[in-house]
Amino acid sequence: MKKTTLVIMAAGIGSRFGKGIKQLEPVGGNGEIIMDYSIHDALEAGFNKVVFVIRKDLEEDFKRIIGNRIEKITEVAYAFQELDDLPKGFEKPADRTKPWGTGQAVLCARDVIQEPFAVINADDYYGKDPFVKLHDYLIGEHTIEQGVHPICMAGFVLGNTLSDNGGVTRGVCNTDEDGNLIGINETSNIVRTPEGAAVKQDEELVPVDVNSLVSMNMWGMQPEFLDALETGFVEFLNRMEHGECKGEYLLPIYIDELLKNGKARVKVLRTDATWFGVTYQEDKAAVIKAFQQLIKEGVYKEKLYD
């Protein structure tokens, strides 16, 4: 069986565990957190290794809460996202406290990834279908021709990703007739409406197609992509040093840069799965109810790993 890895970005879970850390809020009948269900679905789809990207200061607690449990059912590795993990020749600015972003999070795992891999957020529930589609794509034959990286992403139907408790930000995808990504329009404050969905601008609602495909930061890459990601990080840091860039090195933005420069080919894998997430505190009750329904329907067992 070809090895494929699931990379879970969990370095942003906060400085301490406990009440209020949304990635660790129990949502299952036996204290399962959202990560438990993502890992379960990934292993069922054929992934056979999990890499947790965390911060070093959280390692002991993270292993106690979830890591040690997962190590009993699959191969597990850890990568540590730290502010001073920078390419040769760069040093962390003395006043830098903001994380470097999701691009660096994935790059931090470069020493423990030698196989095709998928990337997800720790606090998002994606459903079973997209894991199957990403895995099937990743185990196919993909070559990097003329410096073009083969990438895939799960494309969720916008209407399946909205919150009932406020606006959300989504990357609305523009694709060609073959399902290849042309570009992503990062759109803020999308709200559910009686007609479907709209962007809330001040007091005005601008309708948006509720059937649009959106990115939920669920990607699939070949291991060679990590070399390009490091090159992009150096470029990002150089721009920052010259005062042209103050933000974060974000994975979707870098992939969009590669796409525009003809250095990536991104296949959008449409899924009709429903996304769950705890964007607002009020979302938690709805997420718990949704998992209860999935258990009732037999999608999951009451005790997930039994």
Task: Please describe the topology of this protein.
Elements: E1 5-9, H1 34-45, E2 49-54, H2 59-70, E3 75-80, H3 102-107, E4 117-121, E5 124-125, H4 128-138, E6 149-157, E7 168-175, E8 181-193, E9 196-201, E10 204-207, E11 213-221, H5 225-241, H6 251-260, E12 264-271, E13 276-277, H7 283-296
Parallel strand pairs: 1-2, 1-4, 2-3, 6-12
Antiparallel strand pairs: 4-11, 5-13, 6-11, 7-8, 7-11, 8-9, 9-10
Helix pairs in contact: 1-4
Characterization of the model:
There is one protein chain. The chain is of the alpha/beta class and 306 residues long. The chain is 27% helix and 27% strand. The protein is built from seven helices and 13 strands. The strands form two sheets. Strands 1, 2, 3, 4, 6, 7, 8, 9, 10, 11 and 12 form an eleven-stranded mixed sheet that branches. A two-stranded antiparallel ribbon has the order 5-13. α1 (34-45) packs across α4 (128-138). The radius of gyration is 19 Å and the shape is globular. The two termini are 24 Å apart. Residues 15-20 have low confidence and may be disordered.
